[in-house]
Amino acid sequence: MDGRLAAFLLEECRLNDTMELSITHEQIARHLGTAREVVTRLLRLFQGESLVKITRGTVELLDEKGLEVLAAHSLR
Questions:
Q1: Which pTM was predicted?
Q2: Domains (range + CATH), the chain
Q3: What is the DSSP string of the chain?
């Protein structure tokens, strides 16, 4: 699931031409077909690894390359 989340964040940022998404954990969960709690847990892990910065209602990508590595592992 971490790779799917990373791929989703990268795709959304590229589609919106920004590194900061105005999106809730609930919205992400619905897109991915999972629970909000799972998304929140993974985003906190990503933040601990300095891949993203999460604030209320936003997710900012800090390490695009790191997220690409995670996303690539999910596609294998």
A1: 0.91
A2: 2-74 (1.10.10.10)
A3: -HHHHHHHHHHHHHHHT-SEEE--HHHHHHHHTS-HHHHHHHHHHHHHTTSEEEETTEEEES-HHHHHHHHHHHT-
